[in-house]
TrEMBL record:
Residues 342-483 form the Guanylate cyclase domain. It holds the Pfam family Guanylate_cyc. GO terms for biological process: cyclic nucleotide biosynthetic process; intracellular signal transduction. PROSITE patterns: GUANYLATE_CYCLASE_2. GO terms for molecular function: adenylate cyclase activity. It comes from Corallococcus llansteffanensis. InterPro entries: A/G_cyclase, Adenylyl/Guanylyl_Cyclase_3/4, Nucleotide_cyclase. This is Adenylate/guanylate cyclase domain-containing protein.
Amino acid sequence: MTPAPTTPPAELSLEEYRFLRQLGRVADDLLEESLRERETLAQCFRRCFPTLLQHTGARAIALTTRDEELVEQTWSEGNWGGIFPGALLAGATGVRAHGADTLVTQTLDVAGSPVGTLGLLYAGVPVDAETTARRLRALDVLAEELDTVLMLVHTASEKHQLILQCNEHLANPVFEAGMDQAVRTLAQRVRLPGFLLLYRDAVQPHVLHYRTYRHGQLEYESGEQPSSPLETLLQQHGTRLLHGDAGVLKRLFDGRTTEAVLISAAARSEPLGKIVVWSNEGFSAYAMDLIRVLASTLSQRLLDYNRERIHLSQFFPTDSIDALLEDPDYARHLRAQEQEVGILFADINGFTRICEQGFDSPRSIGRFVDEWSARAVDCIWAHGGVFDKMVGDCVIGLFGPPFFQADRVRRAEAAVRAACDIQAFTAELGARAEVAALCQRVGLPGLGVAVGVNLANANCGLFGPNRNYTAFSSGMNQAARLQSLAGFRETLVMQSVHEALRTSQEPFVRKLQFGPLTETPVKNVAQPLRHYQLSL
């Protein structure tokens, strides 16, 4: 194949002008009908090509472009002499001989972005310059009609592919890692000089977290890489930053174009977060559309992420939740496993009498239990423990889960420290005038708590239809029975705890004092409980 000689274009005659206008109208009608019927590209070309061949007088037509899946394809109609036309369209564009025929090709593009190549094959070798020019002008008319349609398809396909990629990234069990990947992918498609994500904390909705990016790369994040200006704004405005326009945030991006997109959970609900983007050059409609799509995807991901955090916050302190969710396979830490754990049962002394004689309504009982139990759980969490459950007014804690990194001595130390803290704050609560009066009214010497502490093997993990973190073993039953034996403001520890603490070098533990070893038979337990009374 040799290129045809370069010739000056022929003058456009009235007859040719009418022909080209008619050709454009025919192509436009065919494409409009195809779009109206929502046809695929393959269906569209099957509809258009036969008619276009009739009007151009060409022997064959072919078009190479990307399909809806962004995979390059070649569609053709007519006689190409048994040769795959895609290979012919891949060559230089223009007019050239193809055996005994003439191939005319042109690149399809919109605003400088190539979207494919269109070619017409005419019978006979390249002829005079006037005929060649007419064929080039006819091809140009078809290209003008086709390239805009193809750009729309490609843009929609690219957007769809990007959405799928962002969804895949955001499905990452580690939310922050998935978010970083999604923004990086978005920045590869559109100019994204600045990107800020603000979002609520799932457990503490009044707290906002943030991540900022520059050209798709993480720049600042709340916690490990804080931004001083952002921290100042958060202190001044708090969650008000999620409402209204981005006026306050514009102070951080002085002299730049700023756009804000809210991330909402549902109509009339408080926003989950906000995306703010900024650029000296502004953003195209295409870029903002992609950013809004990302915001929509983020809404569901944040809902899922928040549900995870809220579920885990029933059992674990914030530090443990953060550590869990930073592990892509964090579920492995929550699967049932048998381990030796510290076990704590704490129950308010005389609670039944307090409820029946001390309070004027169930609501008052609820408020009192809420305050005491919240502080008891804080004591458990402060020493790395897990809140198992609450049975009545009895709070149950486990020490060791979910990572089981500490040895048995550390687990026993943590359980005893938590027990001492619960005893201390309960006594302080009892010193409040209204609580002291309540205890006097029901004939109690004060507000106290009975605590039982054990160190035993247990099967720990998420169990039941609600997937609660708990433990099962005879050691749990022993701890419950031990707690029921404890008197007013008394803590009893099993022999296993006492033995573990004997090797502790902690100054606090070394100061603890224990009564004599006691054996107490209890109902439904085969062996008597061997335990010690603990005192400071």
